[in-house]
From TrEMBL, chain A:
PANTHER family: PROTEIN PHOSPHATASE PP2A REGULATORY SUBUNIT B. This is Serine/threonine-protein phosphatase 2A 55 kDa regulatory subunit B. The keyword Signal does not apply. It comes from the Eukaryota. Gene3D superfamilies: YVTN repeat-like/Quinoprotein amine dehydrogenase. PP2A consists of a common heterodimeric core enzyme, composed of a 36 kDa catalytic subunit (subunit C) and a 65 kDa constant regulatory subunit (PR65 or subunit A), that associates with a variety of regulatory subunits. The chain crosses the membrane at residues 42-62. It comes from Xyrichtys novacula. Keywords: Membrane, Repeat, Transmembrane, Transmembrane helix, WD repeat.
Automatic annotation (TrEMBL), chain B:
InterPro entries: IER. This is Immediate early response gene 5-like protein. Pfam families: IER. It comes from Xyrichtys novacula. Belongs to the IER family.
Amino acid sequence: MGRGENMGYLTQPGGRQKKQQFHLDVDVEPLFIRFLRTFKEILKFVLFSYTVLFGALLLARWTTYFMNPSVLGQQVQRNTLTVLRDPGGTSRFLRSDPPEPSRVSTAPVRGLIRPSEPLIMAGTGDGSSDVQWCFSQVKGAIDDEVAEADVISTVEFNHSGELLATGDKGGRVVIFQQEPESKNQPQCRGEYNVYSTFQSHEPEFDYLKSLEIEEKINKIRWLPQKNAAQFLLSTNDKTIKLWKISERDKRPEGYNLKEEDGRYRDFNTVTTLRVPVFMPMDLMVEASPRRVFANAHTYHINSISVNSDCETYLSADDLRINLWNLEINDRSFNIVDIKPANMEELTEVITAAEFHPNQCNTFVYSSSKGTIRLCDMRAAALCDQHTKLFEEPEDPNNRSFFSEIISSISDVKFSHSGRYMMTRDYLSVKVWDLNMETRPVETYQVHDYLRSKLCSLYENDCIFDKFECCWNGNDSVVMTGSYNNFFRMFDRGYRQDVTLEASRENSKPRSVLKPRKVSTGGKRKKDEISVDCLDFNKKILHTAWHPLDNIIAVATTNNLYIFQEKLN
Amino acid sequence: MINTMECAADAQSLISISLMKIHNSRTQRGGIKLHKNLLVSYVLRNARQVYIKEKYAEIYRMQQYEEVMTVCNEIQELNPLDLDAEDAEDEEQARAACCGEEASLCGAACHRGAAQLAVHTRAAVSALPDCCPLEESSKEPEPCYYRSCCMETSPVSQCEQFSANSSAYCNKTTVLDLDTHVVTTVENGYLHQDCCCDALQCGQSAQSPAKKRKVEFGCCVSDVEEISDFAAARKRAKREDCSFFHPDYTDTSHISNLISIFGSGFSGLLSRQADVEQICSKQVLASLGAWTRAIVAF
């Protein structure tokens, strides 16, 4: 190329003649030739530098990929989640189907879409998406003796993730609020502190049936925020209540007829008139019941779900599902009724129900037989005829006395995108594509080592435990609980799973959670725990994932653990 | 079919555990949980299938099978509500066979009215609150059983046989009205009073077995001592079967409540008995129909 020519120019004896020839012409066109030569040099240089740059980029990219491919993906999701929340645009920015595990190039591709993200992330990875979880907070009493009323029965983040509500067996609701991120530690997300506590439900007695109605809160669901106040629905076995949680930080002072403490003033002492003004006061959070939806369910309510239209919600008991309007509490529509004419022919009950996150006409309900039915309310007033039936045929080799019990679905949750739904039965978590009814697209075994222990689990009633499951903000990871205060996370994209433990021993602030392992038999390695040593009284039934961040709330029997992603 | 688990519990203990759960659920706070009881009923059904399968396998091998069958037929001829010495003699014969011989003989007597199992389970749970303060282990109720064991073998089974014989398959529906506590059995359009109630009445009226009670008790007590032996446990279980169609008949309310637990239905289950059909006689099958029960909602 250029160099070669130069070399030739200098050394070849014939070049002299050329040179001479050149000199002859130089006078005629010196500028043009010189310009061309210069231009040639410049081009060479530019080409050379681009080659170097490109090579360096490739080298850096590949290095990053081999070191920490998934961190890119994780990092990416944080900054683009505001886009993800846009219901219409979700599909544009979020890959609704999980990346195929065989396509190794997935991670680099995701990184390149968002070039603003740093390409190199430090840190070793383990478990799902190489996110490391560290302890943040624990709420609740430390004693080993658990009061029955303190047992946490539901956990739910609100739509922004700023508020975290828990319900317990004593009928109380405790709401935690996240502190705003401090400027000192921009990387550390705020802590959750108690925001409001109130008694939602009281124990009641049904005199007609001589039955006591438990005050245990079965479910809490937040309504999307429309004004300064927050609204949530809480339900026990029979009654649903709509609560308004509002803040008051000002109060009027300077009444003419009333003293500050509320006593009435004597008329005669009033000599001047003044206008009351609002003065700041200590923040007070009030919870008031705005609606009580009662007497609509004969059987025990197991689920409530707010519709995406924010006007209606459904409540499901063992045999019926009712549709309510949030404003009207004395009437509800019955939309599903699976009670047979002859109760002796009863073969299945409804175990969970949920509205589709985007389509206000669609909802699903799961049954104790392991089936999920998707119903469209536009099809008929009574949705007994399902639109879709999701059922996986039973494996005849695994038949046992307890096949029906372990196939009963305890929880069903739509993904945020609305394309998938997840079901939890006793031993596994299944992810279903709404377009495929014949089998789930993914099945994750939560604690398959319990399959041989079903008999003893039946005797101690643990086989009836209803575990819940949850999605993370961008539907890439699913989480569910297990025994011995273990909880499991399954990364759908990278097919990784991790078992973590919520215990007081790991409760040092920002201590990283170490993955746990249960040894299934044979040799037990160090740090592994054998199946027989598992404590079946310590179970994690309720978990919740912050809708936008990697913050999780995990409820053990009477404690609430909050874990955050480890940030550098 | 169902693979029997390696765990310690066999079908019999599963049945008793399940019944215990159903019984306890009635006193639980918050009312009866329909879902849990439905699941427990599935376990009961599965355990029953295995149990009956095992039982009939033994019966099939028995030599005295036919002998008992003839006894069966004779009893069948009689008016089931008319208990007299003839019955008692038959009972004694059957019981002697029961107690004196292998446990499988009991099975023979048992299979005659397969609903005995139903009654046994009724007995199991009804006897529990009456007789035994401790309800923890399934072995506890057994002494109580023995106390009441020495009655006619099956006024109940006879009742059911009687009604069962009127149709090839026993399509019985037993419904308990929770308000009036009246138990009615609807079968093929005919309304009968519940057999069990009749049986109780029959049982009450019978006096003759009193002296045989001791005999029975004697031979049964020896079994109680073999608690630790697994095989003996099964033996005892079968013995219970033959003996315990007679719950404590002073507690009709308990019985009728338990009957409500085992309503009939599960018509699909009847088809599953097809393989058993080859082994058993039609009679047995018909009375098996009484066993196809679902849980009646409370």
